[in-house]
Each structure stands twice: as structure tokens, then as C-alpha cells.
Amino acid sequence: MPQDWCPFCPGSGRVPDEYSVHLYPNDFAAFSPDEDEFVDHPGLYAVTGARGACDVVLYSPQHTQTPAQLAVGQWLEVIEMWSRRTDELYARPGIAYVAVFENQGDAIGVTMPHPHGQIYALPVVPTLVQQETDSARQYQTEHGECLHCRVVAAEVQDRERLVCENEDFVAFVPFYGRFPSEVHLYSRRHCGRLSEMTSAEQRNLAALLSELRRKYDALYGFLMPLIMAVRQRPHGEGLEASSHFHIQFLPVQRSATKLKYMAAIESAHGTFLNDTRAEDQAAQLRAVEVETPSRRFAVAIGGIRLATLPLPIVGTNHP
Fold first, then answer.
1. Which of 7, 10, 161, 234 has the greatest number of beta carbons closer than 10 A?
2. Residues annotated as part of the active site
3. Tally of CB atoms within 10 A around 94
4. 303 domain-assigned
5. What is the pLDDT averaged over residues 177-187?
């Protein structure tokens, strides 16, 4: 790809000349509505169709604007796009799970700096999502309450692992976290999908999401390499009581100078070793002070629209 050209920028011929948030079809889709439908073949090895969809969600027309620099109103537009597209994809036959996610940072393998996330519609429920779903459903059966609601209530009461919160959402470093500075952002009210939220709840989600992303990038003074995974209820019956909307943030930066690598015990054995205390990481993130970014216009330079937003002014307890 030419260094001075980006397909996601206005003027590229690949996207509208003017847009705020835009849904772009993935040029290298792993799943497509044109593929054969999924069939669960028995046997040692099975080959089946990859029917589904792969979308790219462009957060902004500004090429160098980071997710942390998006205004709350811009995040709200992204959330509204997530919500609409999730419902559209679940309405298609054969879709078992809609995965909304974002990769950020060179250490995660990102090669396109233009701010964006992705949406995959899958013919199967991914393994980790299935494990979480099964555990929550088992807890619901045995205890008569939502496991996620119980965790949220405990964290709000304890408060030692809280990072930030508002009227409708709470973000905390989980006691059971796998990654350094891992944060889970939960809705206080029990709901399974974005489309089940009120407009006020979606706006408060945008506000807390914006605050948390700014805290992450301010923690060490640079763009935090992380994965953001939006967890919504899978397709299927009987999951309403045990499925609870939340977003998982998985950063791989363990300190200002060190990365967390998935070595033998994690990759080959599925056992995560975290050499940080959840309470300490939460305290560090709480201590980061950030300013609220405002929406600005971009200027076109050399065919790429560059953001005029400055980096947020921050204060942190790190030297």
C-alpha cells in the first residue's frame, strides 16, 4: 500500500467523500454471505462453509486521530453503528455470534493506523465466548441469579478494583484478570445486547468508554497496545437471564518499557500468569487524570486527512 494513501480516508475513492462513522466491507474477509452454509460434519477432520460477514467500522475520517481522541459524541455514533449492525447480522439465518472488536497498537499487529474496529458475524460461537456462556448459565441454574450481576455488585461494593464509573456503567480491573491492566466495563442494568439499552444508557456507555480509552493511553504516555472485545448475547434460546453485556480490554503492556508475551505457560497450557495485582493496577488507572476531547475538523494533507486534535493533556503518577 502506498505510504501516502489510505483506503479509509475521504478522497481515496473507496469511502464517501464525507462521513462521520462508516461501515466498510473487509477487503480480506474470512467470512462471507456468499460462502456455503455451516454444516457440522462428523469425523476426525471436517471442512465446512464460512458463511458470515466481516465488516470494518471506521471511527472517524481523520487518519491520525486515535480512539482515545474521539469525542463522546463520536463514540456514541460508533456504538449506534455497533448496535444496528449487530441486529442486522443476527437477523440472518445461520449466524451464531456477532463479534465486535478492535485491535490497537503495533504490538498487537495493527498495520493500518486509521482509527477503526471490526465486526465479524460467525456461524459458530467462539470457544472463549462459549466457555463464558456455559459458566454463566451453570451459575444461573445453580444459584438463581446472573453471575455477571453478582460480580458487578461485589466490585461496586468493594470499590478497590474500580477504575471509573457513571450512572449506568462501571469499569474495574477484574480479580481474575489475565493481562496487566485488564479492565472489564459492565452495564449496571442486566441486558444482553446494545440494542436493549436506552439512548441515555448508550450515551453513558460512550462517555465511560471515552474516559477509559484516554486513561489507557495516558497511563504510560503512549498509545496502549490492546484488544477491545464487546461481549453480547449469542444467538440461542434461554440465554437472556445469564448473558450480561460487557466489554473486555486486554492490554499487553505490562510496564512503560515491557510487554506481556504469551509464552509457553499461557500459549501451550492455557494458564495465564499475571505478575501485577488487580488492586494496584486499578489504583494506577484511577490516578490518571484526563481531559475530555472535543470534536474538531480535519485538514487534508497529501491526500490523507490529518487530525487537528492535540494529544490529551494528562497527569499521571508515573515518572
1. 161
2. 116
3. 15
4. yes
5. 96
